[in-house]
Structures are given as structure tokens and as C-alpha cells.
Amino acid sequence: MASGLQLSRQELAAAYRRMRLIREFEEAVHQEFAAGNIPGFVHLYAGEEGSGVGVCMHLDDRDAIASTHRGHGHCIAKGCDIDGMMLEIFGRKDGLCGGKGGSMHIADLSKGMLGANGIVGAGAPLACGAALTAKTLGTGGVAVCFYGDGASNQGAVLESYNLAKIWNLPIVFVAEDNGYAESTGSGWSVGGSQSGRANGFGLPSKEVDGHDFFAVYEASGEAIERARNGGGPSLLHVRLNRFFGHFEGDAMTYRLPEEVPNLRANLDPIALFRQRVVEASLIPADELDAIDREAVAAVEHSVRLAKSSAPPTAADLMTDVYVSY
Amino acid sequence: MSKKSYRQALNEAMRQEMERDPRVIIMGEDIAGGTGTDGDQDAWGGPMGVTKGLRPQFGPDRVLDTHLAEISFVGAAAGAAATGLRPIVELMFVDFMGVCFDQIFNQAAKFRYMFGGKAVTPLVVRTMYGAGFRAASQHSQCLYPMFTHIPGLKVALPSNPYEAKGLLIQAIRDDDPVIFFEHKALYDMEGEVPDEPYAIPFGEANVTREGDDVTIVAFGRMVNFANEAADNLAKQGITCTVVDPRTTSPLDTETILETVAETGRLVVVDEAHPRCSMASDVAGLVAENAFDALKAPIRLVTAPHAPVPFSSVLEDLYIPGVDKIEAAVHTVMQHGRKEAAE
Fold it and tell me: How far is CA A296 from the centre of its chain?
């Protein structure tokens, strides 16, 4: 079993770097959106970094993930280029998707990132398909399906548990439960439990504290190893919190005023990670400080680049509809 | 070349493509049949027997029975297509798109565009359509206009066994998602079909009859009705050009406009409901681009704006028939004559 604290110093630094990049990325998107520089809808992952990074540390380019409308964190965790991402979110021609997808459809198939998704729960069947490809072609790859507590009520997700089970697919379902389906509490909207649902379909499950990178890393490692070794699908119920609203512009009146400040002060997965590795003398604080500065610089660079890049032209409107037509 | 049924032609297309390319897999409800039972593991070979014999030849890893839950297995086919397989998924009746349309039109159809041209989704959705089986409102619809409306999808409607094999092979080799419509009344239709594999390109109409007086554009099963009507009319001295577009997306607009320019009269035959149909689409195309060539108003022969009824009396009234096509041709031929005589 993979224990997080047995990670090498290099791996720990890599995990910290990715979480830090996600945080800086999302804080920057928050500011740029508020300043009117980003069109459309954006949904931020800040506060949930321990989940995406904890899981994706076990994955490589053979492996595929399906993501959600809250997909920036999964992208970065899976290794997508942050310049390409920022350009995409700004709607630029040189963005990861040529400016045609935006935040809700950001994808990089070459990295096994099958896309954020504007349809809640729709990624689960697609992830089953990626797992089927891996199984059929014998690549040794696995699929991970990220989705929220809201999506967990979609038929697409529940059907996918069953399909994954009967086809014995190499897939892990990661239910990221941030407590809110948009503005509706998951304690009210989810009947039964995530684990109970999985068990009902014959999938093993585990509940894990998503603020604790190490707990996510360990539990997901076990689930991914099971899938990779032909042991079939399983579910991880990750309890976590988002630091921003459902979407940017959400006044969050469904949350008490002290909730987010308390979360930022006490349940920040990056701060908890930092505290843990520094106390255990796994990485010195100044090395983490240096990573912090690199992350800030990298994201600032991506924003500068995005602001100065060209948008698509009229000639781009009708390309990429078909391979041939 | 030998005589084969539409069913056999489709089966042969899948068999030959599966032999050629190990990435081609098929999946669907009862596509083999018998999984999880002690009985025959190729019990049905699909509800109409179209995939019979493929499981014994290619095994359960490439011929996958699914559970009865279309969102997940149609979506899994889309996900598998985007990651390196070339799945043929059977959506038993096209009416069931009501269950799983999101995975087709919001997901598979849009991957390539949303992901900036980096996705390739070689997915084939084979599906059964059409009235005539006393199968009532939820197992008899056409619905191809709805898929035709969606950019990113291609839509094929083979009208006979030769077309069925060639268009299905093209669909399987095509790198875009294709919705492949099989009319349930055509499975036993026989015709000459080459034994070797061949692909019929999409977007190239087939002109099945050539005439001077009226162009009849017909879709799917209706092509056969249009041919019959044209043959009857020829005996009465009216000659028709019959156009089978073969695919509604892409649509061979050039052939349609050229033939209308020659005849000056158009009848469009579509088994779908009239509103936002292929009939209205082709009529709009011709009205916009060949108005000056028209000698008479365009006539549409379609099913009515009503669900497909169960009772055989009603269903027979519902389906556009050869007589209605002939009547429409007479109407366009008579246009202006009465006034001229007066």
C-alpha cells in the first residue's frame, strides 16, 4: 500500500508544487474574472487541491481522467500546461482548445485529461469508455472519474457504477463531496451515502478526508492499484470544501459568513500538507517557500501571456467541427 | 457478388471490418445475447439477428453485451472512441435516444470542436428506426432530422442491402461519430451485394432513376417507395429523377440542386414528421438556391405531425405510401396547366 509519508522528497515537492499551482491559478482566475477579463462561466477548485493531486500522483499518461465543470485543478494535477490553460480560459487562439472550449470544456487528450464537462455527471460513462479502451488494448492504464456530490445523483453516474462492475473495468470513481450541489446541501440532496451506493453495486468504497493529501494519496493508491491489477472498480468518497462559490459571481448566501474564513484558516489542504512535511522534517520550509514563489511567478506569467495573446479569427469558426466533411 | 439481405449485408460489413482492424468492437443490449446465462452465448445476435455469429468469431472481449442502461454504455462507447477504440454501439431503437441523447449530442458530437480539433471520435451508433411494425409511438420513430441538426455528427440512412454494406463500412472507417439508421422494415430486403469490402463515400447522393419531369428526393426506406412510384408514373408518361442522398449529414446539396435545375419540379419524401424534417430542409435548400428553376411549388410527402399510432388501420394511414408520392407528382405536374387552359 502506498503511504504518503513514504513519498520521496522529490515526489513530495512535486505534489506541493501542483497543489500550489492550482491555488495560485484559481486565485488569479478569480481576480481576472472579477476584473472582467474572463468571459463566460468559471468554477474554481481552490480548497480541493488535496483530492485532485492526491489521486493524480498515482497516474501517468497511459491513464485517463474525466473531470467536471470545476476542472482546472484536475487539469493541473494531470499535468496540463498552465499557459495553455490560462489562454483557453481567456478564449485565446493558442489556448489548449483553441479558445473553442473554455473553462468548462478544457481538455488535453495527450495527457489523458478527457475534459472538464459542462454536463453534471456526464464524465462517468466517458471514463468507463476510457477504462474499456485500456482493458481492450491491454495498455495497463486505468481511468479515474472525478465528480461531485451533485453529480452523484445523476443516472449517468449510477449506471456507470453498474457497467464498470459487470465489465470489471479498471476505473476508480472519486466522489468529491464539497457539501454543496450548487447552492443545495448534499446532506439533504443525497439519499443514503456515497459508500452505501457503491457497495450496493458491488464496488468496494472508502471515505477519506480530502483536506488531508496523505489520506487521499493512500486511499486512492490502493484503489488505483486494485484497478490496474484487474481487481475492478471502486469508489472513493472524498469529503472536502471549496473556498469559492459554485461559480464566480455566486454571492454564497447559502453559506454562513464565517464558513469560508474558517475553512481557509483551519482546513486548507495546502497549509496542512506544509505543516506536516515541515514538522516531519521531510522538506525544509525555505524549499517550500521557493516553490510558492515559483508558482506565483508561473501563474503571473500565464496571465500576462493570456492578456497579450490573440483571439481566434473568423477563419477558426468553422474548423474542427469534423475530421472530414 | 451475390444476393444478400440487408441484415446479411450489415453483418458482413461488421465482420470484415472487425477482421481488418482489431480496434473495432461492438457493444449493445443483446448484441450477442445470453451473457450471464447457462444457455447459448450468441443467443440473439442482436434483437434483429444483425450481429449473429460475431461473438463466436471474435469473442466476448470484442462483442460486448451490455446492461440495459443506455446512458452509460452509449457514453462508454463515446469515451472508448475518444481514447483509441473504434466502437460500434447499438442503440436498439432510435426512440431510446430519449434516454441517452446527452452522451451523443453534448459529448461525442462536440469533442472535436470543444477540444480545439485534438479529439478524434470514430464512433458508430447503429440504430433501428421507422414505422410499419405495429410497434406504436415509442418504437417506430424516424428522428434522423434531430441528429442531422447537430454539428459534429454524421447521419447515414441506407435504403437497400448494397447501400447498407458500403455505408456501414464507411461509417466504421470514418473518424467522426456516425449515427447509422437501419429501417426495421428493410432487414429482409434482398439485393446484389459484393462479397469484398467496399465503402460508399458520405455526402454523395445516388440517383436511382433519371427522368425529365420531376425530381423526387427520398430518404431511407422511402427511396424504395419513390422508385416504385417513379416506375408507375413512367407508364403514364411522367418521368422522374429519384435522388437517394444516402446521408443527411453531410448532405449532397449539389446533386439535389442540379437535378431540380433539370426537372424544375420537386417532391421530397420523408418518413419523419413534417416540421424541421429533411423534407422541409431540402425544400428550404431548393427554395433558397434554385427558386428560378422551379415551375411549380415544392410538395412534401411526410408522415403527419402526430405520434406513430398502434392500430394497423391508423399506422397504414400514417406512413407515406407510393400512392401519396404519385399524387404529389401529379400535383406538381398539373400546376399552372389549369390556369393555362382557362
Answer: 20
As a CATH number, domain A4-316 is 3.40.50.970
Judge whether B21 and B29 are in contact, CB under 8 Å. Answer: no
Domain ranges of chain A: 4-316
Nearest to A129 among B77, B112, B152 (CB): B77
> What DSSP string runs through B75-99?
HHHHHHHHTT-EEEEEEEEGGGHHH
The mean pLDDT values, 10 residues at a time, for chain B of 342 residues are 96 98 98 96 96 98 98 98 98 97 98 97 98 96 98 98 98 98 98 98 98 98 98 98 98 98 98 98 98 98 98 97 98 83 56
Enumerate residues 6+ apart whose C-beta is below 8 A from B254.
Answer: none
Cell of A101: 472550449
Which residues make beta-bridge pairs with A180?
A185
Min CA distance, B7 vs chain A (Å)?
27
The answer on pLDDT for A258 being more than 80 is yes
Contact status, residue B259 vs residue B207, Cβ threshold 8 Å: yes
CB B305 within 8 A of CB B274: yes
* Across A182-195, average pLDDT: 96
For A214, the grid coordinates are 496523505
Cβ separation A129–B75 shorter than 8 A: yes
pLDDT higher than threshold 80 for residue A222:
yes
Q: Rounded to whole angstroms, how far apart are CA atoms A142 and A88?
A: 27
Are B67 and A130 inside 8 Å of each other by CB? no
Compute the distance between CA of residue B293 and CA of residue B300 in angstroms, rounded to an integer.
18
Tell me the pLDDT tens digit for each residue of A51-104. Answer: 999 999 999 999 999 999 999 999 999 999 999 999 999 999 999 999 999 999
For chain A, the C-alpha Rg in angstroms (whole number) is: 19
Tell me the pTM.
0.97
User: What's CA B154's distance to the chain center, in Å?
Assistant: 11
Query: B211, B263 in Cβ contact below 8 A?
Result: yes
Q: Which of residues 142-171 of A touch B (CB under 8 A)?
A: 155-156, 159-160, 162-163, 166-167
**Which residue matches cell numbers 503571473?**
A300
**A130 and B80: CB-CB below 8 Å?**
yes
Calpha distance A285→A291 (Å, rounded): 10
* Model pLDDT, residue A1: 45
- What is the DSSP secondary structure assignment for residue A300, as one 8-state letter? H
Q: Is-catalytic flag, B330?
A: no
Q: How far apart are CA A49 and CA A45, in angstroms?
A: 7
Three-state DSSP state, B183:
strand
What domains can you pick out in chain B, each with its CATH number?
A: 2-193 (3.40.50.970), 206-341 (3.40.50.920)
The runs of H, that is alpha helices, within A44-172 are 49-56, 72-77, 82-89, 123-137, 155-166
